[in-house]
Backbone:
C-alpha cells in the first residue's frame, strides 16, 4: 500500500456483517479507503449527510462499536507492475502464494472511467484461443468482450484455461480472476498452469469462497486494474473472469446488508451498472494511446439452460457475443459442448485470418443441417438415399473435427491444415480413428515435410497459390503414408487371429485325453 494521509477521524456507529456504519465524517467519496485499528480496512460504498457505509476488505482486528475510523485523502488504489506476473494475489494486491512480497511499479485506481470512443480503434487482430470451434466459427478479437454461458459442469472454465495455455508464444499477458471458487478448484487451475509453464506470462487474482465478501466484490475490478497497467504499456492483455454469477450473488448480499431495495430476483437496481462499468474497460487503444488492448472472457453460470435469467440477459446485452454451452451435447460426449445455434460473435470475421475465413465459411450451416438431418433420420423407419448417407458421413467427420480434449490447444497452422483436409475431402479417405490421429500429428508432419510452411502461413494468413500447393503436397503425402500402413496392419491382425485359433485348437486337443483319463 502507498503511504496514506489521513484527513478525518470518525467512529463506528453499528456493524451489519461485512458493512460498517461510520459517523463523524464531514467529507467522503465512493471508493475512499477507511482504516480501523491495525491492518483492518475497507472502502466507502454508500453515504448520506449523517453517516457513511463502509465495506470491509480485510479484517485483522475485531471491530467494535465506538472504535475510531480513519479516512484517507485518496480513493483506494491497487498496486500493479511487471513483478506481478507469475504470482497469485488477492483483491488487495497482496501475495497468496507464499513467495514473499511483490515490488509494485505503480498504483492504479479500481474504479477508473472506461476509455473514450476516440481513444479506441476498431478490432482487427485475432485472439488465438486454441479452441478449434471458436477460432474457426466464432472468432474472438483482441479487445473484445465474449461471454461464456452454460450449466454447471459443462466445461466453461476450460475455455479460459485453454486460451491461456495457447498464449505461450504470443506475448500476451494473461490474468485469471477466480471469484467465489472453492480452494480445491483454484488449486487445480494453479497446478495446470504450473504443469504447462504458464506462470511465465500469467497472473491469478483469487477471491475464494472463504474470503470476505468485500474481496469477492473487488476481485474483477482489481484484475482489470492490473491488466490496464500492461495495456497502457502497449501490450495485449487477456482477462478471464470465473465467474460473474458468484460476483452478482456477492453484490446482492452486500446490497441487502446496506438496506437497498431489492428488485427482480432480489438483485438491487444497479446490478446492470455493476458489470457494465467493468466490461466497458475492455478495448483496443488507438495508436496515440499506445495500441495496447484488453480482452475479456467472463463466465456466467445459468440454471437448466435458461438464457433469459436476469443476470445472463444483462450481460448478453453488454458484450460483443456469447458462447453458449449445451448440457445435452456435453452428455453425448461432444466436447466442447458448444451450441452453434445460440452462440454468436458480433465482431464477426473482421478479426479472423483470411485463410481460416475462406475455409470455415459454410461449416456452421453445414453442422446445424447435419444435426437436424440426424434427428430426422432416427425418426424415419425406411431406407436412406445415397445423398442422405453421404451428408450424414460428412456431418460425422465434421463433428469429429469439432471435438477437442481439454488442456490441448490447437495452433492456427494446424487448424488450417485440418479445415483444408475437410474441405477437399482428404479426411473422407480415412477412418474415424485415423482422423483423430491426423489432428494430433499433421502439424508436426507438415513441419518435417516443409520447414517454411508454418512461418510463411503465419506471415501471410491468406490463401495463395504457393500455400495451397504446400497444403496439397502435405495432405496427399500424409494420406498416402496412412494408406500404405494399412495392409501391413491388416496382415498382422490376420496372423494374430490365426495364432489365436491355433492356440485354442492345441488347447482343445490336449484337454481331450486328460478328460478321458479322468472319466475312467
Residues:
Amino acid at each position: 500500500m502507498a503511504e496514506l494521509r489521513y484527513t478525518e477521524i470518525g467512529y463506528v456507529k453499528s456493524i451489519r456483517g461485512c458493512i460498517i456504519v461510520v459517523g463523524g465524517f464531514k467529507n467522503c467519496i465512493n471508493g475512499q479507503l477507511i482504516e480501523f485499528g491495525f491492518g483492518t480496512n475497507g472502502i466507502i460504498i454508500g453515504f448520506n449527510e449523517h453517516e457513511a457505509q463502509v465495506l470491509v476488505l480485510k479484517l485483522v482486528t475485531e471491530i467494535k462499536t465506538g472504535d475510531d475510523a480513519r479516512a484517507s485523502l485518496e480513493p483506494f488504489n491497487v498496486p500493479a507492475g511487471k513483478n506481478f506476473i507469475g504470482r497469485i494475489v488477492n483483491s488487495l494486491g497482496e501475495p497468496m502464494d507464499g513467495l514473499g512480497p511483490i515490488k509494485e511499479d505503480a498504483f492504479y485506481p479500481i474504479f477508473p472511467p472506461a476509455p473514450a470512443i476516440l481513444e479506441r480503434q476498431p478490432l482487427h487482430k485475432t485472439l488465438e484461443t486454441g479452441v478449434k470451434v471458436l477460432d474457426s466459427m466464432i472468432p474472438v478479437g483482441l479487445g473484445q468482450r465474449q461471454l461464456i454461458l452454460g450449466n454447471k459442469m459443462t466445461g466453461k472454465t476450460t475455455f479460459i484455461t485453454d486460451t491461456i495455455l495457447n498464449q505461450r508464444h504470443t506475448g500476451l499477458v494473461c490474468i485469471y480472476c477466480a471469484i467465489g471458487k472453492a480452494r480445491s478448484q483454484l488449486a487445480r487451475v494453479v497446478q495446470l498452469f504450473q504443469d504447462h509453464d504458464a506462470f511465465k506470462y500469467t497472473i491469478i487474482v483469487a477471491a475464494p469462497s472463504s474470503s470476505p465478501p468485500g474481496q469477492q466484490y473487488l476481485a474483477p475490478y482489481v484484475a482489470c486494474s492490473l491488466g490496464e497497467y500492461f495495456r497502457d504499456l502497449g501490450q495485449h492483455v487477456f482477462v478471464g473472469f470465473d465467474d460473474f454469477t458468484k460476483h452478482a450473488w456477492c453484490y446482492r448480499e452486500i446490497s441487502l446488508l446496506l438496506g437497498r431495495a431489492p428488485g427482480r430476483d432480489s438483485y438491487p437496481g444497479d446490478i446492470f451498472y455493476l458489470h457494465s462499468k467493468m466490461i466497458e474497460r475492455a478495448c483496443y487503444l488507438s495508436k496515440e494511446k499506445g495500441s495496447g488492448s484488453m480482452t475479456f472472457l467472463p463466465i456466467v453460470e445459468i440454471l437448466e439452460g435458461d438464457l433469459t435469467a436476469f443476470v445472463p440477459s444483462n450481460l448478453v446485452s453488454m458484450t460483443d457475443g456469447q458462447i453458449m454451452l449445451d448440457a445435452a451435447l456435453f452428455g453425448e460426449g461432444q466436447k466442447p459442448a458448444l451450441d452453434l445455434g445460440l452462440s454468436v460473435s458480433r465482431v464477426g470475421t473482421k478479426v479472423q485470418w483470411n485463410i481460416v475465413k475462406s475455409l470455415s465459411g459454410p461449416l456452421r450451416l453445414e453442422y446445424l443441417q447435419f444435426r437436424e438431418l440426424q434427428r430426422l433420420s432416427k425418426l424415419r423407419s425406411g431406407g436412406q438415399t445415397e445423398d442422405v448417407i453421404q451428408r450424414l458421413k460428412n456431418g460425422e467427420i465434421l463433428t469429429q473435427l469439432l471435438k477437442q480434449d481439454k488442456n490441448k490447444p490447437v495452433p492456427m497452422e494446424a487448424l488450417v491444415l485440418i479445415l483444408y483436409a475437410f474441405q477437399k475431402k482428404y479426411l473422407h479417405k480415412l477412418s474415424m480413428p485415423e482422423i483423430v490421429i491426423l489432428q494430433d500429428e499433421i502439424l508436426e508432419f507438415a513441419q518435417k515435410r516443409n520447414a517454411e510452411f508454418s512461418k510463411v502461413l503465419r506471415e501471410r494468413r491468406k490463401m495463395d497459390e504457393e500455400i495451397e500447393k504446400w497444403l496439397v503436397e502435405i495432405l496427399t503425402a500424409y494420406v498416402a503414408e496412412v494408406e500404405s500402413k494399412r495392409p501391413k496392419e491388416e496382415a498382422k491382425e490376420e496372423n494374430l487371429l490365426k495364432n489365436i485359433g491355433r492356440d485354442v485348437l492345441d488347447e482343445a486337443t490336449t484337454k481331450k485325453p486328460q478328460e478321458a483319463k479322468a472319466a475312467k
About this structure: The mean pLDDT is 88. The longest strand covers residues 6-16.
